[in-house]
Amino acid sequence: MSSVPQASSPEVLTGTPARSGSMKEDRRRALYWSYFFLVLFAVFFLTPPIYMLITSLKSSAEIGAITNPWFVYHPTLDNYTALLGSEQYLTFFKNSAVVSVVVVIITMLISIPAAFALARMKFWGSATLGMGVFLTYLIPETLLFIPLFKIFAWVQDLTGIEVMNHYWVLMFIYPTLTVPFCTWIMIGYFASIPKELDEAALIDGAGYLQMLTKIFIPVALPGIIAATIFAFTVSWADFLYPMAFTTSADQLVLPAGIVTILIRGDVYAWGQIMAACLLGALPPLLIYAFLMDYYIAGLTAGATKG
Amino acid sequence: MAAVLPSSKAAAVRGGGLRRFARRKSTIAFLMALPLIALIGGLVVYPALYSVHLATLNKSMERFVGFGNFEFLFKRDLFWMVVKQSCIFAISAVLFKALIGFCVAHFVHNVPAKGQRKWRGMLLIPWVIPPAMSTLAWFWLFDPSYSAFNWIFERIGLPSVTWLGDPNWARFAVILVNVWYGAPFFLIMYLAALKSVPEQLYEAAAIDGASWWQKIWYVTLPMMRNIISITVLFSLIVTFANFDIVRILTSGGPIDQTHIFATWAFKLGIEGNDIPLGASVSLFMFPILAIAAVFILRDINRRGNEA
Amino acid sequence: MAQVNLRRLVKTYDDTPAVRGIDLDIPDKEFVVLVGPSGCGKTTTLRMIAGLEDITEGDVVIGDEVVNDVPPKDRNIAMVFQNYALYPHMTVRENMSFGLRLKKFPKDDIERRVQNAARILDIGELLERKPKQLSGGQRQRVAMGRAIVRDPKVFLFDEPLSNLDAKLRVQMRTEIKKVHQKVRTTTVYVTHDQVEAMTLADRVVVMNGGRIEQVGAPNELYHSPVSKFVAGFIGSPAMNFLPCTLEEAGALRVRLNEAIALPVPQDRTARYRPLLGKQDLQLGLRPEHIVDARAQLEPGQHAFEATIDVAEPMGMETLAYFQVNGVDVCARVHPNAGAAAGARLRLAADMSCMHLIDGATGRVL
């Protein structure tokens, strides 16, 4: 490393923190520009949600009148009350909730033991399986939805069980979206638990199942919460599979329901649609608001491990 | 394992306990991973392979037509447009997402720690809202008659834009929404990565006389190579295979000009009831994805060995 | 309480031998320290005793039972890890009682044991805290508490003090010794620090390259090392090794260079005389046996002069480094002896503590 420090201020030369001089000036300028751009991007990112809110508070009349779309002159909660009273909308909500919760449970039941086995126990094929989990994540749902559609149709023909056009089909399919990434997250968390803890537990007399339930799960709880949140939000938000598999109104989940049913012909009740969207986005938003750290940990955990 | 020398009776009675225990551990592990294997095998690998089979059938799925579907597709201009389009969408969207994510991460990083949480919280919101719903909001923002953007344009003297009516504007709109939705992900990743670069490297660079731009080029980017590769790979795949945004904004219109693989496969396969053709279209994504994956994985492995 | 016997113990990883045949008998209640440089096999040996490593060849006997195939939980041992390995989500009390709870011990028995251990280690007030609320020394004590409650036959320590700062290490060393005096259980303790070995052990086992170099009480190893490795490993600063030749000029002498020839003590002449003319001899002399020469020499001392290269004042003494024939030598002189870079000092070597080493084989002759 070379040579002469650039700044002329004596503090920098002696190594003490600069009280005045070029470093601080730089930092202040950087800060101002940062705030400027941050505000710009915040406007960019937050415009659609805010616009959703604004529109949802408008009556159809106001929307039709083409007044300032960015301001509500006569705010009304009619859209919301209509939705909350609409059995159809509530069915969508119920379906989404049921599917998401069940899928989260299934995902955790599959991911946690598998992650424990892959992180801690070497068994035949564990390395390939680990790689396989990662690669699975690279196979998108848009590749699988057609063959899956055909497979389930065939199952229906074969067994007579009505699998098509029922939302509980999604409970089988959504795990393909959630399990690989959740397993990957959990492997990262489990692997970070020091091996000495295993050995202390072995000496204390714990079998593998006890190690998992009494030690690994409690210690890796943040990871489990993060994975749960991830699984929930993915299940709640998925759009392609419901569009492909469910068609009758009473079987639809929220995303598909709003898009297909609430948009009727050329007459859009946009106030109501926006309200529906906002209400539908509420669960993930609430989870995010209260558990933001876990939410973000879920995202970053997967990548930093890889 | 070399033979254990003959020992006392007690061990003989236990019958090689430690070795049996080790073998049992292997079986337990396998059983624990079995649901995962079953899920991946049955609902991912099998359908993927099955789609190859499907692609070789005719429309009513009775006859084997080999590459017939593909020949049919290759002859159509629309197919090549879809290929080109999907690639352009993916590459340009990912480029912008990464760039925006990178820059905004720096801005957030510059803000004092207490404020960072607040900004981070606000800026991640596009990612939290289910894409189907936020895309509807954009759809309404782009509405031909009621577009709120056009309302602003008129006020300041700019011409109205037919956002979704004109093929080029429609493409722009799709990319825009995609970038809006995905940039926060990059932001979060890069912010975390930025924090892990030791402050001392920047101080050493400052002493060496590096400008802010040089610091980024010589310190930040090299330290973040791995995370950049990973995020770009993931995003390329996810963006390439995107369905929600195009479907809701344009349904592939106007006049099929904004179709990408997923939406076109949906239209042909589910709406058009030609499953094999739809499967062929989806399948075509795979080689492109695989090539991208190989390149970037190789990159990661190489870098990982350096580190 | 029980004795531990290691018979022809061997451990090989793939093709690399880590432990090449260890025979060791540890009587009941003895505190044995396995010491040696990194990679010498001491930790591997400990883990084989614990059951955390499979045994390639040989036997581990605890009590009078061969435990090769017995899982760790049934060997009646307890282990204290270098990184404490405390369960972070459990309180101190739960950490200590975890093993007992798994074995379904009755509640009052568990409570009695926990209280007993807490009393011995003085951690009674910490019972409801979690590990992250404890200091390093406290965590180490909790780890020991976890071991004590099991009332095992053997305590195993895997470098428990390596993570503590120097001052704390000295403190905890004494604590461990006190605990052993209260709870007289056979103990096998692994460390790379020879000071810990010397201060804690009833007997020290010096290991090198997967084999035992020497076993003995600390004093025995200090005064009568059998090999150059042990001689150089025990004692700090390390023993000086000076290439020399034996000569006879009236009496038997050790010649270092033209200027310095040191006399061999009377009681050793018979032993060393047959080695006259032998090549590749080295004189081993500890720094504490090279001091500044007083006006009147002690019996056994012989004076010579040397120019000091580097002086390190330690407060209670000064380490003076000088060269003989290009070899660095360290002497421990009085702080007021005037040792400084460039000074010419009159030093006295205590030849009654000399060792003669065969340079080729490394054996002490």
How does this structure look, described?
- The complex is a heterotrimer of chains A (306), B (307) and C (365).
- Chain A contains 16 helices and no strands.
- Helix content of chain A is 74%, strand content 0%.
- The longest helix of chain A has 35 residues, at 22-56.
- Chain A has 306 residues and is mostly helical.
- Chain A is globular and about 75 Å long.
- Chain A folds into two domains: 10-50; 79-305, MetI-like fold (Orthogonal Bundle), CATH 1.10.3720.10.
- Chain B folds into two domains: 16-54, no CATH class; 68-306, Orthogonal Bundle (MetI-like fold), CATH 1.10.3720.10.
- Chain B is built from 15 helices and no strands.
- Chain B has helices at 9-14, 17-54, 68-75, 77-110, 113-123, 125-128, 131-141, 148-156, 167-195, 199-208, 212-223, 225-240, 244-249, 261-271, 275-306.
- Chain B is globular and about 70 Å long.
- With 365 residues, chain C is α+β, with helices and mostly antiparallel strands.
- Chain C has two domains: 4-226, P-loop containing nucleotide triphosphate hydrolases (Rossmann fold); 240-358, Beta Barrel (OB fold (Dihydrolipoamide Acetyltransferase, E2P)).
- The radius of gyration of chain C is 25 Å and the shape is elongated.
- The longest helix of chain C is centred in the middle third of the chain and has 17 residues, at 166-182.
- Chains in contact: A-B, A-C, B-C.
- Chains A and B meet through helix 2, helix 5, helix 6, helix 7 and helix 9 of A and helix 2, helix 4, helix 5, helix 6 and helix 7 of B.
